[in-house]
Prior knowledge:
The protein is an alpha+beta fold. The chain contains six helices and eight strands. The chain has helices at residues 2-19, 28-36, 53-63, 72-76, 131-134, 146-153; strands spanning 46-47, 50-51, 80-82, 92-95, 104-110, 113-118, 122-127, 137-142.
Amino acid sequence: MKKKLAAAVLSLSIIFTIGAGSAFADSKMDKVIDKTIGTKYVSGGTSTNGFDCSGFTMFVFDKIGINLPHQSGSQYEMGSAVSRDEMRPGDLVFFNTNGKGVSHVGIYVGDGDFAHASSSRGVTISSLNDSYYVNRYVGAKRIMSTDAYKTVASDSQDNDDVQ
């Protein structure tokens, strides 16, 4: 019961965090990420039964029609580098967590936060400003073209019949 309540609270906090002022709120990618929050960490995992970090990014991008390899270092070889102040939701963020180069990846969701499969917490949202990640940050890569971004960043259905 505690785990379900914690997941519900986390999900609500993510909705408010991601939804507040983000062009990505209610986007196709946001909806995929939101459905995975709380999924447990499984080494080699690529499904909602359990994810590792690159399995999570691979899963999310697959749902929006973009194929990524299942390895953070291989994902780092893709796309084009972007600076921290140029990042937009959907960019991949990379970290060196083992001292041997790129070893962790997540998806930037806006407002200084990223979604990732944490080995200790499962799929979660963390801050790039957390000292753990600041000290291990390698860089960000843009995988989606501007056209792909516009398609993914838009809501799949707009049923706002407000008059």
